[in-house]
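thread from #wetlab-drylab

HS: before we spend reagent money on co-crystallization trials with uridine-5'-diphosphate-xylopyranose, can we at least see a predicted complex? here's what I'd submit
DV: go for it
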Amino acid sequence: MVKICCIGAGYVGGPTMAVIALKCPAIEVAVVDISVARIMAWNSDQLPIYEPGLDEVVKQCRGKNLFFSTDVEKHVSGADIVFVSVNTPTKTRGLGAGKAADLTYWESAARMIADVSKSDKIVVEKSTVPVKTAEAIEKILTHNSKGINYQILSNPEFLAEGTAIQDLFNPDRVLIGGRETPEGQKAIQALKDVYAHWVPEESILCTNLWSAELSKLAANAFLAQRISSVNAMSALCESTGADVSQVSHAIGKDSRIGPKFLNASVGFGGSCFQKDILNLVYICECNGLSEVASYWKQVIKVNDYQKNRFVNRVVSSMFNTVSGKKIAILGFAFKKDTGDTRETPAIDVCKGLITDNARLSIYDPQVNQEQIQRDLSMNKFDWDHPIHLQPLSPTAVKRVSVVWDAYEATKDAHGICILTEWDEFKTLDYKRIYDNMQKPAFVFDGRNVVNVEKLREIGFIVYSIGKPLDPWLKDMPAVA
Ligand code: UDX
Ligand code: ADP
């Protein structure tokens, strides 16, 4: 029986291994992590991550051919294929600070594999890592090999949170990069055989190691670039009276452009986009490609501009001051259908409003108070370390309360900011909300989810990203 072990039971490792176990009943899959709490949660009815469809998959295989354990060394030592899916934060100090990936956790995982292995292994890079990481890992393993043969593969993950299970069931493609030697090709074939249980052969692409590693960074950079492009357009739409949704629809009809990833928003978030682009920028700079580096850096700059612009709209609309005013924040996760808050635009928007002395009442259907307080008090990039290495008990951010209901959050508020596109925000009773708010009552829709006309009829002053401006907002400049 083939044995797979995955180091790191996070957003990538957990769902990916659960689907491999489901689709390959003859393979034994162990997911291991140093976090006892995380493993306990994977073994309970309350999984550590919220992902539609994941519960059912885990329930079907857990205890049969899918196991979650903290006994990292035992499972690594017994595995034929070891996936590594550990944290890869952005460095906060030293060489490459603010850009380069911190490979501390990767390196310690590689050294541990070398320490405990007694048989040949295929080691698969699953975390997002900079190009040429595989080569570095290969060096650590071969210099500590004790006669054991290691083959390193890069098998980047393309799942998106909120649709992870569907993405894993029907991937656009599976990418496997490996060495162009006979042993490398054999390892590629072994991993291909795993995916071939459910992925059509023509969708499994095999490349050299560096192409696979770079493709992951490039794919995320291209996706993020589409969002920054449409967000840049949204600012121009607001100035000219065009409607960004109409513009997106029109350009998306061009089959060369396509309709996806053209929704203007308050900004993109998530654990990958910013981190991967920073990595790409760093790699370009290291290779002397400063023009290429600044081209990609601009994608992040426009994202920051969009978040600032949103905060400025809120403040300038409300007579240039939000001091002491209650503002309801609807949605904190970086997108709908996930409880993940990593790099969510809500963090920067909330921090901006707090700087201007607003009182915030935050509601998200999947994010709890502890997480929100932690996010608002953490330093940039601290989020991407294992939880036991993050600041212990951050001091609670004053002027922020977290509630479990949109009506509670909006009661007596002066304004509402919609920061995540949760479906339930489309169907709230906005008349009831309006009646319970201070007047004039404002809605700032950072995700274009509300029906602007209906809300204006109720009496709200509405700002919706990239839409023709409410007459109220026209004379209030809000350029960041
Ligand atoms: C992304 C990639 O899509 C995935 O392939 C990769 O493996 C990991 O990174 P993820 O971060 O989970 O996935 O979510 P994604 O759906 O890409 O959304 C990222 C951010 O962009 C979210 O904040 C989302 O709200 C925002 N977004 C997305 C927009 O603002 N507009 C869009 O049109 C699409
Ligand atoms: P991703 O979104 O890439 O899955 P996460 O941060 O959700 O990232 O998951 C990474 C996981 O890796 C964390 O649960 C962390 O505890 C775990 N981890 C980090 N280093 C090690 C290690 N050396 N051995 C086992 N698990 C590790």
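DV: The longest strand covers residues 3-7.
HS: ok that's useful, forwarding to the group
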